[in-house]
Write a structure and sequence with these properties.
Number of domains: 1
Distance between the termini: 31 Å
Helix content: over 70%
Order of helices and strands: HHHHHHHHHHHHHHHHH
Number of helices: 17
Largest sheet: none
């Protein structure tokens, strides 16, 4: 495609930023899907927000499963591009799509068959919230396959140096979702009001539109993924290579999702308002995640291409530049969450003083950790680019798991929910510190090995 960038040459900061900005835009678009649902559902009821937030954990787990193919394909495509080996890149893409499609269909069936049991796990204690959460989870599996395919299309283009096309295509999907959500939730003309089911349907229809555009655009512009062959016999050696790289990030993200489900179960003991606060607060906090994810993907692509091209000094400089930018982003989002907490929260629930008060408390506590969250996410991208996906997994799993006993202990004290929020924020701070030190050690060893072979 015309928008491809060769990341093994040129000025590092400008090349990173040029690649990262559209990816950040794409990440914000993904966030906007959730925000659009919550903004409209917040005008329906606090219970609807709690229900969508609860069911949304299974969409989060889907995003974790996607990482098996997404990371495995992305790293290999970046390194193949760095070596100039496009034929191998095509093989990774074809086999990766086969794997991704199989996982998507299996997960969709699992969600639909066990939807009642999955929502029942949370012990929500409110029949209205439970009913709406099950309704959301009934609709979602019908189109979740498109949710699996689109990130893979995006990562192939991103790691080829083309982040503009995924941004444009995902922007079209967001526009569709913004239009569809209020129509399907509240009804319009002959379309009856569907409530929370309308929010789920609007999301999957928008994702379907994105998939169609990716396919049409790929054929038109001869994108690498347009040569994918889904009906050929899978190459198990290639699939194992994809899984080897993608499985650790899936484990980290998947366990993180499960841990948050357990924490939500703890929070549910404080009532539906507490669940709604967590749902909305985490979406607002995702300002940091989504911005950092954009630069993380750019750092991963940059590191992968230069690792494939055997340019160790450029890898070191690229990581340093990326972390400087991410650190600045983290500080700015901390200030926003701490000082703009009330304004941000009332956008979603303008007429519930109890929810607003607890929401402000949540954002201010989580605001303390945003610098470290940015560092963790960016460093994870650098690890992925080197093909070392295990260290971020170990770091994330261990410290995220510690949130459960911390939340249980602190939540049972006089500070209540504040203790739960503190358990999340402190663990994020520790993750950022540890992963940064770990990467510096690993990077030094790997770059010495590369330099010795040159």
């Amino acid at each position: 495609m015309n928008n491809n960038i060769n990341l093994t040459e040129g000025k590092i900061r400008s090349e990173l930023t040029k690649l990262a900005l559209p990816i950040m835009g794409t990440s914000f678009i993904q966030m906007a899907y959730n925000l659009t649902d919550i903004i409209w559902l917040g005008r329906l009821s606090t219970e609807a927000v709690a229900a969508a937030g609860t069911a949304g954990f299974f969409l989060w787990f889907a995003s974790s499963l996607i990482m098996i193919a997404q990371v495995g394909i992305g790293v290999n495509v970046a390194q193949c591009n760095g070596r100039g080996d496009l034929e191998s890149a095509k093989k990774y893409i074809s086999n990766g799509f086969q794997l991704d499609f199989l996982i998507a269909v299996t997960y969709a069936l699992f969600l639909f068959i066990f939807r009642h049991q999955l929502i029942g796990f949370f012990n929500l204690g409110d029949n209205t919230v439970i009913r709406m959460a099950v309704e959301y989870l009934t609709i979602l599996p019908l189109g979740i396959t498109f949710h699996f395919l689109n990130p893979v299309f995006s990562v192939i283009l991103n790691n080829s140096g083309n982040s503009i096309t995924p941004f444009k295509i995902n922007a079209a999907g967001m526009a569709a979702n913004i239009i569809l959500d209020p129509i399907l939730i509240f009804g319009f003309g002959p379309i009856p009001p569907m409530g929370i089911k309308g929010a789920a349907l609007g999301t999957i229809l928008a994702q379907f539109i994105v998939t169609v555009i990716f396919i049409i655009s790929g054929k038109k512009n001869n994108a690498t993924y347009s040569h994918v062959k889904l009906l050929i016999k899978p190459d198990m050696k290639i699939i194992k290579g994809i899984v080897k790289l993608g499985f650790p990030p899936f484990v980290q993200s998947g366990i993180h999702a499960i841990i948050n489900m357990v924490i939500t179960k703890i929070i549910a003991g404080f009532g539906p308002v507490a669940v709604a606060v967590q749902s909305i607060g985490s979406q607002i906090e995702s300002l940091t995640w989504m911005t950092a994810e954009g630069f993380s993907t750019a750092i991963s692509a940059f590191t992968g291409q230069n690792y494939g091209a055997k340019k160790p000094k450029r890898i070191r400089k690229g990581y340093k530049e990326g972390i400087k930018i991410l650190g600045t982003i983290g500080i700015l989002t901390s200030l926003l969450l701490i000082f703009g907490a009330k304004f941000l929260f009332t956008i979603f629930i303008p007429d519930d003083p109890e929810a607003i008060s607890e929401g402000v408390n949540y954002l201010r506590i989580l605001g303390l950790s945003q610098f470290f969250v940015s560092i963790e996410i960016g460093t994870t991208g650098a690890f992925n680019g080197l093909g070392r996906t295990m260290p971020p997994t170990v770091n994330g799993v261990v410290l995220n798991a510690l949130r459960i006993p911390a939340a249980m202990i602190l939540g049972s004290t006089a500070i209540g929910l504040t203790g739960v929020w503190l358990s999340i924020s402190v663990s994020s701070i520790l993750k950022g510190i540890i992963i940064y030190i770990w990467f510096k050690v690993v990077l030094n060893h790997m770059l010495i090995d590369i330099e010795q072979t040159l």
